[in-house]
Amino acid sequence: MARRAEPLRPLDRPRRERIAAFRLGLSAESRAAILLIAKGYRILARRWKTPFGEIDIVARRRGSLVFVEVKAREHAGDAAEAVTERNQRRIIAAAELWLARNPADAEREIRFDVVLVMPGKIPQHIANAFDATR
């Protein structure tokens, strides 16, 4: 007796929550970039992907090179707590790769900032939020 072919299933679609989270992240990163530009930063890269993870924003201002993590939450405290030690290690590792690929930037002051984005509020920029010695 011949086997019946399995009916073709539609490709699994991402859940609505994941799509909404992705869009929220893009919006938060755009708001953070606008804030940084208004403060005189030059955006070098957004969503820079590495084997270690992604850096949300890489920017320069004067003699500084800044790696920026963007967190969007309902409350600033929740956003700040979302920048965990694991996140920090991932960002630092990705930043080291950036510096290896862009050796001229290694001469600059290196900083790790965080921008907290909350609905209906101006984003909060925390300069030097953590350092690479942790």
SSE topology sketch:
Blueprint: H1 16-38, E1 42-50, E2 53-61, E3 64-72, H2 76-81, H3 85-101, E4 109-117, E5 124-130
Parallel strand pairs: 3-4
Antiparallel strand pairs: 1-2, 2-3, 4-5
Structure in words:
- The chain is an alpha+beta fold.
- The protein has a domain at 41-130: Trna Endonuclease, Chain: A, domain 1 (3-Layer(aba) Sandwich), CATH 3.40.1350.
- 34% of the residues lie in helices and 32% in strands.
- It contains three helices and five strands; from the N terminus they run αβββααββ.
- A five-stranded mixed beta sheet has the order 1-2-3-4-5, with helices on both faces.
- Strand 1 and strand 2 form a beta hairpin.
Summarize this structure briefly.
The protein has 134 residues and is of the alpha+beta class. It has helices at residues 16-38, 76-81, 85-101, and strands spanning 42-50, 53-61, 64-72, 109-117, 124-130. The chain contains three helices and five strands; from the N terminus they run αβββααββ.
Which sequence of strands runs across the widest sheet?
A: 1-2-3-4-5
- Quaternary assembly: single chain
- CATH architecture verdict of the domain at 41-130: 3-Layer(aba) Sandwich
Q: Helices and strands, in N-to-C order?
A: HEEEHHEE
Largest sheet: 5 strands, mixed
Poorly predicted residue ranges: none
Amino- and carboxy-terminal Cα gap: 66 Å
The secondary structure category is alpha+beta
CATH-defined topology of the domain at 41-130: Trna Endonuclease, Chain: A, domain 1
